């Protein structure tokens, strides 16, 4: 009877070991992660899949919307103006991260960003009356300038960072620094009242932004492995 009882204990012991080994194996085989990030392109929602020990695939959606951001007393050519700005961002990233060192979370990132909408709209108005000799024109009558700047199409991106897309533990943190490499933005410039002639400077503004082909991609993220 004692021998039978001992055999049962041994069987249960090895059965528990087998379950533990199977659980450990399943933990090691977790190859997916979801993440939430925030940064220069707003809120990000991410899905990642492990391809190898050094390579992970990533799919990220970024969204940002800032409405009626006001900046007062901005000096432009000795004139003080107020600027009312709106920014809207919607970008989808498809990319990879490469981990060159086995025991380090340092990584290189690259991919393609689909710029569904990256739009900056600004309204410029005088914040005080305009004086020409003895003639005084109220700031309301002077009019306003509306600048609409838009990036579209697709843009490759590159970057560096720390923190794996598929963390070693269940939770992981990371930070990334990089940039989208885009074509120059499209400019639309309109003006009213006394400032109406300013709209003729659209081509000059377009040329001044011709080299503005980089959109910063900075993210702080938290990932969950499953």
TrEMBL record:
This is Outer membrane protein beta-barrel domain-containing protein. It comes from Polaribacter reichenbachii.
């Amino acid at each position: 009877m004692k021998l039978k009882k001992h055999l049962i204990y041994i069987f249960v012991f090895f059965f528990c070991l087998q379950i533990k080994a199977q659980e450990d194996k399943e933990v090691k085989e977790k190859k997916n992660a979801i993440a939430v990030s925030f940064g220069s392109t707003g809120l990000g929602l991410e899905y990642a899949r492990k391809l190898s020990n050094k390579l992970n695939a990533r799919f990220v959606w970024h969204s940002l919307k800032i409405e009626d951001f006001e900046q007062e007393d901005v000096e432009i050519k000795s004139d003080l103006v107020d600027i009312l700005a709106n920014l809207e961002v919607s970008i989808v990233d498809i990319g990879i991260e490469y981990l060159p060192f086995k025991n380090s979370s340092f990584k290189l990132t690259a991919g393609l960003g689909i710029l569904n909408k990256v739009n900056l709209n600004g309204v410029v108005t005088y914040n005080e009356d305009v004086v020409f000799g003895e003639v005084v024109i109220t700031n309301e009558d002077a009019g306003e300038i509306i600048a609409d700047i838009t990036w579209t199409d697709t843009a490759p991106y590159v970057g560096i960072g720390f923190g794996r897309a598929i963390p070693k533990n269940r939770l992981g943190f990371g930070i990334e620094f990089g940039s989208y490499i885009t074509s120059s933005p499209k400019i639309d410039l309109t003006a009213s009242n006394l400032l109406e002639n300013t709209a003729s400077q659209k081509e000059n503004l377009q040329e001044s932004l011709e080299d503005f082909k980089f959109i910063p991609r900075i993210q702080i993220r938290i990932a969950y492995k499953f």
